Structure formats: C-alpha cells, structure tokens
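We now fix the convention by which a protein and its fold are recorded. The integers have meaning only within a learned vocabulary of local backbone shapes. A record is reproduced here so that you can trace the correspondence yourselves:
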Amino acid sequence: MEMSLFAKLRMLADWSPLFSYVQTFMDAPDVQQKAEAAISGLQFAAGKTPTEIDDEGLAHIKAILMSDEGKAFVVWLEAKVKGAE
C-alpha cells in the first residue's frame, strides 16, 4: 500500500513525540530514569491504540518500577546485563 506524501507527513507528525522519549532515554543518567522514559514512550504509543488493556498494563508496570522493589529490580537487571558483556 503506497502512502501519499501528505499521509506520510501526517504519520510523522502524529508519532514525532516518540523522538523526545528516545532523547530522554538516551540522556537519562541512570537505569531507573531510562526505565521511566521507556515506559512513558510505550504509554504514548499505547495511547494511540483503541484498546485500553495496553494502557492499563503499562500503568501497572510503571507503578511497579517506581516502587522500591521495582527500582531494586532494575538496578539488579542492569548489573546482570553489564556483567554479561
């Protein structure tokens, strides 16, 4: 399916906020802030769908990551990934 130039520009405009989430992710000084930026970007994308289950699921994942246990998990995961390099 070929898209017109106007349709391509419209899609770029609709999805351009993802670039700011990627930039926030790249600039984040620690893994916890990277996780928060990733979840926020995913929430933006999920908001573009007509279903609510993805929005609700990501809200729960974000709440878990923001808890003390979630932060500890992200730090542990980062250590494991860096140790595997």
